Each structure stands twice: as C-alpha cells, then as structure tokens.
Model the fold of this input.
Amino acid sequence: MQEQAAISALGALAQEDRLAAFRLLVTHGPLGLPSGTIAEKLDVKPTRMSFHLTTLERAGLLNAQREGRHIRYAVDYEQMKSLLSFLMEDCCGNNPEICGLSHSNILKSSSL
Done:
C-alpha cells in the first residue's frame, strides 16, 4: 500500500460513526449489509450514514453494490489487509515477533 492510500484510509476511519460502521461490516463478511440496516444498527440517521459510508468507499475500505434503490456495503478485505500490512511493515525493527505479533498471523486473523 502506498503512503497516500494509507493516510486516506486512516483518515476515513478517524471518525466515530465511520469506525463503528467499518467494524460492524467486518463482522458481516463479504456479503456486507444494506446502508439502511447499517444506519439502523448504529442508530445513525440514514442520510448521515450514507455520507460516512461513501467516505469509507472513496478511501478504498468498502465496496458498494447497488441493489435496486438500496446500496449494499461490504469491507474490501484485500485493502484492509494491505493497510494492516503497511502499519506493521516496520514493526519492532522488522522483527514483529518482539511485539508478540507476526505479519502472517495478522493477515490470518483478518481474513474470513
């Protein structure tokens, strides 16, 4: 992942409703959820949630698929893995085992 893409993704996640939506969608796998359901589950007005979901999509963290009048959002797991890898790239002087983490374990735990 390029630095600018990481900055964009982290900036998109740096807001309470967007972070909550992303975390909710991670738990729903590749099928994701319709935007209205996300808004309802997080008790956020639908128009406000649409704005936040669009921000996450533009940052490359979500995929959107139109289903009639509704839009279904799902996490782009490859982008999420790229972001996690970017963040861990230089961990502990390129020795993430010092931190109790390994690059491969992070990728395994983030996949569905």
About this structure: The two ends are 20 Å apart (CA to CA). The chain has six helices and three strands. The mean pLDDT is 87. Strands lie at 33-34, 62-67, 70-75.
